[in-house]
Design brief:
The chain is of the alpha+beta class and 185 residues long. It contains 5 helices and 6 strands, in the order ββαββαββααα. A hairpin with a 4-residue loop joins strand 3 and strand 4. The chain is elongated. The N terminus and C terminus are likely disordered.
């Protein structure tokens, strides 16, 4: 297809078969090329369109802006333990001082003192707080996380993700996104 649209332009919001986004943070988006391929493979339904089209010698296709999967994908109930998910759980703020920048990952009980790399022992910490706490326990450093570290559910991460809407939201997506209303239990 000879498209006059840049590779990075015209993202497509991907909804599950129940019309909920597959994820909020990061927002479930595909390139328009992947969405059109999924249409031809009969894996998605087009829900909304952009006012743009791509053309081939045999075909004109209006670019989808929202698609829904034809088969329901059961969401995972246990999120992966990743640096990003720790930051998302902790709402992208240092658990010692509240700073939102220069975040690192801090073991509450240092690994050298038997601390594990688990949800319950790792928090987001800004570099200055992490350096100040160093290799000490919270009692030794007199530094205690603002909240108890915990293993979040997917719903809790989605809820936190809704606090950080992306910079770009196309108007055709708004009926399918719930940034401050519908919160999952």
């Amino acid at each position: 297809m000879n498209a006059h649209v840049s590779q990075g332009g015209w993202p497509v919001l991907v909804l599950n078969a129940d019309f909920r986004p597959l994820s909020y943070y990061p927002l479930s988006l595909w390139s328009w090329q992947d969405a059109i391929k999924a249409v031809f493979l009969d894996r998605v339904n087009i829900v909304e369109h952009y006012d743009r089209a791509v053309h081939s010698p045999n075909l004109d296709i209006q670019l989808p802006s929202v698609v829904s999967l034809k088969s329901f994908v059961k969401p995972s109930t246990h999120p992966a333990f990743t640096r990003f998910n720790v930051f998302l759980r902790d709402k992208f703020s240092c658990q010692y001082c509240g700073a939102p920048e220069d975040l690192t990952f801090d073991h509450i009980i240092p690994r050298s003192k038997g601390g594990q790399t688990t949800w319950e022992n790792v928090v987001a910490a800004c570099s200055p707080c992490n350096l100040r706490k160093g290799n000490m326990t919270p009692v030794q450093a007199k530094m205690f996380p603002r909240q108890t570290a915990f293993a979040p559910t997917v719903h809790q991460l989605h809820r936190n993700g809704r606090l950080f809407p992306p910079n770009y939201l196309h108007e055709s997506w708004l009926d399918y996104l719930y940034w401050d209303t519908e919160l999952d239990p």
